[in-house]
Design a protein that fits this description.
The protein has 410 residues and is of the alpha/beta class. The protein has helices at 4-12, 164-172, 211-221, 236-248, 268-274, 308-327, 379-382; strands at 20-24, 37-38, 48-49, 53-56, 70-78, 92-96, 108-111, 129-132, 142-143, 154-156, 177-181, 185-191, 195-196, 207-208, 225-232, 253-257, 276-282, 285-286, 290-296, 299-304, 335-341, 345-346, 351-361, 364-369, 386-390, 396-397, 402-407. The chain starts with a helix and ends with a strand. The relative contact order is 0.13. The protein binds adenosine monophosphate (AMP) and magnesium ion.
Length: 410
C-alpha cells in the first residue's frame, strides 16, 4: 500500500498547466488569469461629485444654517459625462449630478437635500439662485482623482479565479479581454450493469447512477468542462467502445467510477492497459483504498472507486489537485482548519476522511461524525460540512483530540 501523499505526487507529475488564450470579458467569469493585471490609469479619472447637489466654495457657505441660509447664484449645470466650462467664483454655485466632474473654483459639494432645491425633477429647469442650509468641509462629497487606484498598481495577481467583481474592475480599467488558461476538459464514465440514469424506470436489482452526476458537478465546481459519456455496462466490448469514444472528445482527463476492483466483471483495467498503461494502487486511506491511475492513449486516466463516498473523497484528494495544476489556479481551494472531537471515535489506522459536521463553539471548532461511515452511505456526506482527516497510524481518538478538518465551503 502507498501513502496518500505518495499517490498524489505520482499523479501530479503527469499534469502541466494548460495553454493560454485571450477571452473577452463576457467569457471570463470563472477563468484563471495567466498574467497579473496592472492598472494603466488612475481612478477616479477626475475629481467628481459623490452626490447630487451644488458645487460651492467652502468659504462662501461657512455661516449657512437652515435658519440663516446662504444664497448663491447658480451659474452652471453639470450632468455626468460632461466637462464643466465655468469656474466657480465667490458667491456662485453649480448644480452638479453624481459622477459629474467638479468645476474649477469649487472645493465642496452640498447635497441637494441640504438646499431648497431638493424636490426637483431631473429635467427641472436650472434655478437662478440656491439657498444653502449648512456649511461644508473642504473636499466634502468630492471623490478626488486617483484616490482609489494609481497607475502601476497591482490589481489582480496571476492565477486569479475571476469573480464578477474582478470582471467589473477589468472593465473599469478599460480592459476588454484577458489572457486566461484553457479550461480542463474532463470526460466521465460510470461503469456497472446495475446502473440506471435518474429519470429512467428502475428494475429489480438496479440502482441509480449517483457518481456520474456527482462527479460532473464536482468538475463544474472546479471550473472545468464536463464531457458526460453516461453509463457503460460490464462488458469488455462496451467498455472498450466507450473509452474510444471518450478519447475522441479530446479530453485532458478521463475519469471512470467503479469497475476497477477485483470483481469478475471489472473490465476497465484491461481496457486501459490494452491502449496505454495502468498503475493500480492500494492507497493507505479510508474510504477509497483502491485507486487506478494511468494513461489511456496519451490521456491521463483516473479509475475512481464505485462506492459513492469513496468516489467523492477520491475526487477531492486526487483529481482536484490535478485539475488545479492544469488550470493554474493560485487560489487555495482547500480550506483546512483544526477541530476537536465532541465524542471519542475509532479509526482503523489508515488515513481516514470521515464525514463530519464542524461547528464553531466558544471560539473553537468542534467536530461530530454524521452517522455511520460506510462508503456506500452518501447521506453521511450530504449531512456533513467537512471531512475530518485522521492520520495514518492513529486508531483511538479520545473526545477533545484535535484533527485537521477540510471544510466543504468557506
Ligand atoms: P464496483 O467498484 O463496481 O465493485 O462498485 C462498488 C459499489 O459501488 C457497488 O455497490 C456499486 O453498485 C456501487 N456503484 C458503482 N458505480 C456507481 C455509481 N455510478 N453510482 C452509485 N453507485 C455505484
Ligand atoms: Mg461494478
Amino acid at each position: 500500500m502507498i501513502s496518500v501523499q505518495s499517490a498524489q505526487q505520482r499523479i501530479l507529475s503527469h499534469f502541466q498547466p494548460l495553454e493560454t488564450s485571450l477571452v473577452p470579458l463576457d467569457g471570463a467569469l470563472g477563468r484563471i488569469l495567466t498574467q497579473p493585471v496592472i492598472s494603466g490609469i488612475h481612478f477616479p479619472l477626475f475629481d467628481n461629485s459623490s452626490v447630487d447637489g451644488f458645487a460651492v466654495r467652502m468659504e462662501d457657505v461657512r455661516t449657512a444654517t437652515s435658519a440663516h441660509p446662504v444664497t448663491l447664484d447658480v451659474v452652471a449645470d453639470i450632468p455626468a459625462g460632461q466637462m464643466p466650462e465655468k469656474v466657480i467664483s465667490t458667491g456662485q454655485a453649480a448644480r452638479i449630478m453624481t459622477g459629474a466632474p467638479v468645476p474649477g473654483g469649487a472645493d465642496a459639494v452640498i447635497m441637494v437635500e441640504d438646499t431648497d432645491c431638493h424636490d426637483r425633477k431631473i429635467d427641472s429647469h436650472l434655478p437662478e439662485k440656491v439657498h444653502i442650509y449648512r456649511p461644508a468641509n473642504s473636499g466634502e462629497n468630492i471623490r478626488r482623482s486617483g484616490t482609489d487606484i494609481q497607475p502601476g498598481q497591482a490589481i489582480l495577481p496571476n492565477g486569479t479565479l475571476l469573480r464578477p467583481q474582478d470582471i467589473g474592475i477589468l472593465a473599469l480599467l478599460g480592459i476588454a479581454s484577458v489572457p486566461v488558461r484553457r479550461k480542463p476538459r474532463v470526460a466521465i464514465i460510470s461503469s456497472g450493469d446495475e446502473l440506471v440514469s435518474a429519470g429512467m424506470p428502475l428494475l429489480p436489482g438496479k440502482i441509480y447512477d449517483s457518481n456520474g452526476p456527482m462527479l460532473a458537478a464536482l468538475i463544474q465546481k472546479a471550473e472545468c468542462e464536463v464531457i458526460s459519456l453516461g453509463v457503460v455496462p460490464d462488458r469488455q466490448e462496451a467498455v472498450q467502445e466507450i473509452f474510444a469514444r471518450a478519447a475522441q472528445t479530446r479530453p485532458d482527463v478521463i475519469i471512470s467510477s467503479a469497475g476497477v476492483g477485483a470483481g469478475a466483471f471489472d473490465y476497465i483495467k484491461s481496457v486501459v492497459e490494452s491502449s496505454g498503461s495502468l498503475n493500480f494502487w492500494k492507497v493507505n486511506m479510508r474510504p477509497g483504498k483502491p485507486l487506478a491511475f494511468g494513461i489511456y492513449r496519451d490521456i491521463p486516466f483516473f479509475g475512481l472507486p464505485g462506492n459513492p463516498v469513496s468516489s467523492y473523497v477520491s475526487f477531492l484528494v486526487f483529481v482536484q489537485p490535478a485539475l488545479e495544476r492544469m488550470s493554474g489556479i493560485a487560489l487555495k481551494t482547500k480550506i483546512s482548519i483544526r477541530a476537536s472531537l465532541v465524542e471519542p471515535i475509532e479509526s482503523d489506522g489508515r488515513e481516514s476522511y470521515l464525514r463530519a459536521i464542524v461547528q464553531l463553539r466558544n471560539g473553537k471548532y468542534q467536530a461530530m461524525l454524521t452517522g455511520h461511515q460506510g462508503s456506500g452511505n452518501l447521506f453521511s456526506t450530504v449531512q456533513a460540512n467537512a471531512l475530518l482527516v485522521i492520520p495514518a497510524g492513529v486508531t483511538t481518538c479520545p473526545a477533545g483530540a484535535e484533527f485537521e478538518a477540510w471544510l466543504f465551503e468557506p
